Structures are given as structure tokens and as C-alpha cells.
Amino acid sequence: MRWYRKAADQGSTAGMYNVGSLYEHGLGVPVDYAEAMRWYQRAADDGEEFAMAAIGNLYRYGEGVAQDYAEAVRWYRKAADQGYAAAENSLGWMLVNGWGVPQDYVEAMRWFNKAADQGYAAGQNNIGWLYENGWGVPKDYVEAMRWFEKAADQGYATAQTNIGILYLNGWGVARDLNQARAWWRKAAAGGNDAAKQWLAQYPG
């Protein structure tokens, strides 16, 4: 905290963001969302996109402020407009669910693609998810698998779980329960609870 605070006091927006993050997550200090917001706001006012996205998260989850999806979207968009991949992905997720913004799968896909173009695994996974369900695009299990594999190759456990589901159902691939289990084991090793549930349902 001392070094981050020193950097923040010298005008470093990264330092301000890091101080806010310590307060948000209770790292070395008690959790204090109001103090986190104060530091994030200072950094965001100086153009720090990480802080903008963090403010979006506080509004999205109602941490230290009243839950406000529209305000979350506004802050995610600020950060996404600066090319911050995590915010691009979060904005896409808000669009998928219609949280604080009209539901729009096509626009969600556009933002997921922006995140995926930067190698952001969650964005890659979410593109696969839209293809799997045919939301905003024609349903295409082969394309879904391609995107899930991109994310899974980065160790993204949700995508590994999703690949297992495609193998379980024979969607875009030959049905192969052993392959499904192998992918679920990878995901479970990464802490994915859904994968653990699939393995419990299909032991072997």
C-alpha cells in the first residue's frame, strides 16, 4: 500500500487504481468500497481505463453503491472505448443480458470480437457461446468449438467445460464421452464448479 500510495500522491493513475484495488479487495487493509470508489474515480478522471472498468464493476454488483446497471454500462463503455479488453467483454455481457441497455446480441458479438482480437480468453469463449446458441449469428457448433478452443488453449476453464459439453452432445464433433470427461477434468483442475458437476453426473 505504501508504495502505491506514494505513486498515487505523485499523480500516477496506475498508483491510484492500485490503491483503489487494495481497498476493494481488502488486501492489506479492511475492505472499504467507498474508499475504493474514491481512488478509482480519481484515476478515471485522469483517463485510467482500468479504473473506469473497476467503477463499472462496483455499480454492476452494487458494492458500496446502489446497484445500477445503466451506470455500469456507462463506465464499461468509457473503458471499452479506450480499447481495454476486459471492459469490451463486460460491455458485451451486459448487452447479451439486457442489463442497463437493450438486449442486443449483434452488438454484443461486436464487443466480444474486439476483446478476442486482443487475445482475451473470456471474449473468445463468449463468441463461442453465441455461436453455440445461435444468438446474433446462425447457430454453428463447429465455429463454437473453434472459439472455445482458442480460450481453452489459454487455460480458460469455462471454455474447457464448454468443449466437454459439445463432446457430450456430439455438437460439431463426434460424440465422445471420454473426451468430454477429459476436458471437464482440465476445467475442474482450474476450479470450475460446473465442470465438477458434469463429472459427478458422468463419472468414469
Name the features.
single chain, 204 residues, mainly alpha, Serine Threonine Protein Phosphatase 5, Tetratricopeptide repeat, 2 domains, globular
Commentary on this structure:
The chain is mainly alpha-helical and 204 residues long. The protein has two domains: 84 residues, Serine Threonine Protein Phosphatase 5, Tetratricopeptide repeat (Alpha Horseshoe); 86 residues, Alpha Horseshoe (Serine Threonine Protein Phosphatase 5, Tetratricopeptide repeat), CATH 1.25.40.10. Helices cover 71% and strands 0% of the residues. It is built from twelve helices and no strands. Helix 1 packs antiparallel against helix 2, helix 8 packs antiparallel against helix 9 and helix 9 runs antiparallel to helix 10. 47% of the residues are buried. The mean pLDDT is 96.
CATH superfamily of the largest domain, please? Answer: Tetratricopeptide repeat domain
The structural domain count equals 2
Largest sheet: none
Count of helical stretches: 12
Indicate the radius of gyration in whole angstroms: 19 Å
Averaging pLDDT over every residue, what do you get? 96
Specify the CATH architecture of the largest domain. Answer: Alpha Horseshoe
> Structural class of the helices, strands and pairings?
mainly alpha
Question: Which CATH class of the largest domain?
Answer: Mainly Alpha
- List how many beta strands DSSP finds: 0
- Please state the overall shape, judged from the principal axes of the Cα atoms: globular
What is the terminal-to-terminal distance? 48 Å
Q: pLDDT below 50 for ≥5 consecutive residues: which ranges?
A: none
Helix-strand sequence: HHHHHHHHHHHH
Assess the beta-strand content as a share of residues.
Answer: under 5%
CATH topology of the largest domain: Serine Threonine Protein Phosphatase 5, Tetratricopeptide repeat
- State the assembly state of the protein chains: single chain
The percent range for helix content is: over 70%
